[in-house]
Amino acid sequence: YYLHRAKIERDYAKDLQKLVDNCKHKNELGSLEKAWRDVKTDTARIAQTHDTAGADFDKLAQEMSSFTDEQKRQSKAAEDAVQKLHSNLKSSYSKFTSQEKTFHQKGETHDELLNSIKFMENTRNTVVPKELEKARVKESKAKDDLEKNENSYKNLHEEVTKSKAAYESEMTKMCELFQTLDEKRIDHTRDNLWKCTNLESRICVEQDEYAEKMRQNIEPCDIDGDIQLYIKYHKTGSEKPPNVAYKPCRGRALKVQVDKGDHLYSEVTLH
């Protein structure tokens, strides 16, 4: 809005100044000529007011741009931190679920071996002692393997819990930051709009002041004086042309009374 408004103000100022430069009014005299000069002068001042307003709208646009850039910088920093923790959480959780699956499989294997040993012990008379001993060795290895996997599983569970807590904490901070940033954005935008309306008022006040000067300069125009001035510079003479004489044919003369100072129309030059 501010950038477009700045361009509109500058273009309007240029058009007003161009109008002033091209407006000559060479045929006016006296008080009306002076009034026209004053109108052109004050119109040029109005053009300057709008040109200044264009620069002020540019400043408002720059303020808004700088503010927005800073908000984007803070938002991106918070988002990057959360994204990093989220990636760590995803990685930890993936390892945790994989280890969980392995741990449960090891537990099932160990339980099967225990059940197998119990069955052999209950049927000792039909079981070869060496087979029972092999089963016990397998069970012992399976138990060790289960305990190792259980330790890994517990460590990964602790890691996931910490990653989740860190992610949620940072996520909470980011949300609080976003709320703060939006509150500042609303307040800053409101403040800028207030400045914008003040600028609008200043333009109107200055333009009305120049318009009032125009009215004050136009009001004293002296119509009778301007007409007399026009007559002074453009009069054709102070005497009337003579009456048109009638000239009879056949040599008959016609006496015509000619007033003193009269002259023929052919001698009059009209301007």
From TrEMBL:
SUPFAM superfamilies registered for this protein in UniProt: BAR/IMD domain-like (SSF103657)
Entry's Gene Ontology cellular component terms: cytoplasm; organelle; plasma membrane
Coiled-coil regions listed in the entry: 132-159
F-BAR domain segment(s): 1-226
InterPro entries membership: AH/BAR_dom_sf, F_BAR_dom, FCH_dom
Gene3D superfamilies: Arfaptin homology (AH) domain/BAR domain
Presence of keyword Signal: no
PROSITE patterns hit by this protein: F_BAR
Cell compartment(s), UniProt: Cytoplasm, Cytoskeleton
Keywords from the named record: Coiled coil, Cytoplasm, Cytoskeleton, Phosphoprotein
PANTHER family associated with the record: NOSTRIN, ISOFORM H, PROLINE-SERINE-THREONINE PHOSPHATASE INTERACTING PROTEIN 1
Protein name: F-BAR domain-containing protein
